[in-house]
Write a structure and sequence with these properties.
This protein folds into five domains: 100 residues, Rossmann fold (3-Layer(aba) Sandwich), CATH 3.40.50.20; 70 residues, 2-Layer Sandwich (Dna Ligase, domain 1); 127 residues, ATP-grasp fold, B domain (D-amino Acid Aminotransferase, Chain A, domain 1), CATH 3.30.470.20; 118 residues, 2-Layer Sandwich (D-amino Acid Aminotransferase, Chain A, domain 1); 67 residues, RNA polymerase II/Efflux pump adaptor protein, barrel-sandwich hybrid domain (OB fold (Dihydrolipoamide Acetyltransferase, E2P), Beta Barrel). 26% of the residues lie in helices and 30% in strands. It is built from 15 helices and 35 strands. Strand 15 and strand 16 form a beta hairpin. Helix 12 runs antiparallel to helix 13. The chain is globular. The chain starts with a strand and ends with a strand.
Length: 587
């Protein structure tokens, strides 16, 4: 399909990443943004930008009709969804098709088969691809999950069929943990993907997490572009990725790649995609799921193959045949990516809010930064915690690792807490240097060391103050304009394509959190999604009594000591500020 304008239905660093690829292909770009993202970098960088709703994603970035309406109004002939949000929403894909707008990604039918983990397992069986023992139908109840736990043996993984990124994935190590895991997985799945369908599989202990990148065109041509090792994880979400994997031989790479090609051909897959596998300690690998979109960690594959995967997505959507064969793909050198998240690693990777007061990116040969923030950016509680992706390349793994250590030391982000100290610890660990990494890396090697890192006091963004400026960004009927101040008033818009440099900044001020031993304090700003106790209930020290969602993650809030609940101040669905008292214990 021919198009000259692309709407990017996302935000932050991935929106900027897609826009740059579009501009290099000579395509016009359209941004959408929520009220929380008025001053965001992706809004200013786009050729045109439209306000689509309030800060919560469900009222803005997940509003399919609003986004399609903006596409029509802006003249966009295609939509790139990035990752997250609408990237694996088959209804949205079909609505794009009905509107005559190209969706830069796979077809809805292929997404139905591979984007949903249950269907993907069924396809894998047909394609003779090894699977982790588990169900190929949805699991409807806690009782059914308990029965499967007895059948497979514990631990078991209770997983959302839709989406990815570790959301809606809970592990039960015993029958006593199944009910909580089941409820939590369903709640996260419904909140993140509007689909609470779950399935159960045996939880493979201490594997590596290996994934295969694929590209497929509309004419049946499909290739794989090596593997990525994504084993360093917290909450089943990746923090460090690298390619090639230190554990994958050429023979194993070929075997996993062949499985990926069979799955793609079975579904007539088109576009970029990633097939995830578990590599067990005994060398056996199992298909886990497929992500029918571009991945956060696509950068390391680009660094070693020299192939721009986002541009490839766009060119395939325009009807091009793949311009290289499997035999022409060569892996050169080694690449590592560290996700730079706004999280407090010393406090269990708790989301961290605030305002970036100073920001300097590392530079130099072999260093790449994909960022969506700058000095003055306010980090909101509504979206994913990732701020940037730091990527290095080297001729060898050792060179890429040394370059990453240097780049982390050169990266300055002040005013908020980030995972940069975690990355420094992780890369200094001998096990990582030797490539001896599994999904148990953090609890096995870093759990005690992380507790020794300074934990930041939770902060809250203060009201934004206007500063004098000759240029302002304004909105007229939801569309972004740049205006200049002239005398006492405003001129007519001087550019209706891009937002002006933001003129609003806020100082980062810390809010002291109470340390009352009789109070259950909320350490983060977020939304209460579960209350696990009641007034008069006896509780143990460290018992989880509240679950608060912030930055798309569920955070368990525990009691400071044993006692009896005297008061409860929160309600499910209620927003809560950092430092608020959720409950008190009898003195």
């Amino acid at each position: 399909m021919s198009f000259d304008t692309v709407l990017i239905a996302n935000r932050g660093e991935i929106a900027l990443r897609v826009m740059r690829a579009c501009k290099e292909l000579g395509l016009r770009t359209v941004a959408v943004y929520s009220e929380a993202d008025r001053d965001a970098l992706h809004v200013r960088y786009a050729d045109d930008a439209f306000l689509i709703g309030p800060p919560p994603a469900v009222q803005s970035y997940l509003q399919t009709e609003t986004i399609l309406d903006v596409a029509r109004r802006s003249g966009a002939g295609a939509i790139h969804p990035g990752y997250g949000f609408l990237s694996e929403n088959t209804d949205f894909v079909r609505n794009c098709d009905a509107a005559g707008i190209a969706f830069i990604g796979p077809t809805a039918d292929a997404m139905d088969l591979m984007g949903g983990k249950i269907h993907a397992r069924q396809v894998a069986l047909r394609a003779n691809v090894p699977l982790v023992p588990g169900t190929t139908e949805a699991v409807e109840s806690v009782a059914e999950a308990l029965s499967l736990g007895e059948e497979y043996g514990y631990p078991i993984a209770i997983k959302a069929s839709a989406g990815g990124g570790g959301r809606g994935l809970k592990v039960a190590y015993s029958a006593e943990e199944v009910e909580f895991a089941f409820e939590s997985a369903r709640r996260e799945a419904e909140a993140a993907f509007k689909n609470g369908e779950l399935f159960v599989e045996k939880y493979v202990l201490d594997p590596r997490h290996i994934e295969i990148q694929v590209l497929a065109d509309q004419y049946g041509n499909v290739v794989y572009l090596g593997e990525r090792d994504c084993s360093v994880q917290r909450r089943h979400q990746k923090l460090i990725e690298e390619t090639p994997s230190p554990a994958v031989s050429p023979e194993l790479r070929s075997a996993m790649g062949d499985c990926a090609l069979r799955l793609c051909r079975e579904t007539k897959y088109v576009g970029a995609g990633t097939l995830e596998f578990l590599l067990a300690p005994d060398g056996q690998f199992y298909f886990l799921e497929m992500n029918t979109r571009i991945q956060v960690e696509h950068t390391v594959t680009e660094m070693v193959t020299g192939i721009d995967l986002v541009q490839a997505q766009i060119r395939i959507a325009q009807g091009e045949k793949l311009w290289f064969s499997q035999e022409e793909i060569q892996l050169r050198g080694h690449s590592i990516q560290c996700r730079i998240n706004a999280e407090d690693a010393a406090a269990g990777f708790r989301p961290a809010l605030g305002t970036i007061s100073a920001y300097t990116e590392p530079k130099g040969y072999g260093v790449r930064v994909d960022a969506g923030v700058e000095q003055g950016t306010v980090i909101p509680p509504y979206y994913d915690s990732m701020l940037a992706k730091l990527v290095t390349w080297g001729a060898t793994r050792s060179e890429a690792l040394q370059r990453m250590r240097r780049a982390l030391n050169d990266y300055t982000i002040e005013g908020i807490t980030t995972v940069i100290p975690f990355h420094k610890l992780a890369l200094a660990e001998p096990a990582f240097e030797h490539g001896d990494v599994t999904v148990s890396f953090i609890p096995r090697y870093l759990e005690e060391k992380l507790k020794q890192l300074p934990s930041a006091t939770p902060s809250a963004a203060e009201p934004v103050a206007e500063q004098p400026s000759r240029e302002l960004a304004v909105e007229v009927n939801g569309r972004r304009f740049t205006v200049r101040i002239a005398g006492e008033g405003l001129n007519t818009p001087v550019a209706n394509t891009k937002a002006a440099t933001p003129t609003r900044r806020s100082a980062n001020k810390k809010r002291e959190v109470a340390t009352d031993p009789n109070a259950v304090i909320c350490p983060i700003q977020g939304t209460i999604v579960a209350i696990k106790t009641s007034v008069g209930a006896a509780v143990e020290a460290g018992q989880v009594v509240f679950v608060v969602e912030a930055m798309k993650m569920e955070n368990e809030i525990a009691t400071p000591r044993a006692g009896t609940i005297a008061t409860l101040n929160g309600e499910v669905g209620k927003s809560i500020e950092a430092g608020s008292v959720l409950a008190t214990l009898e003195a």
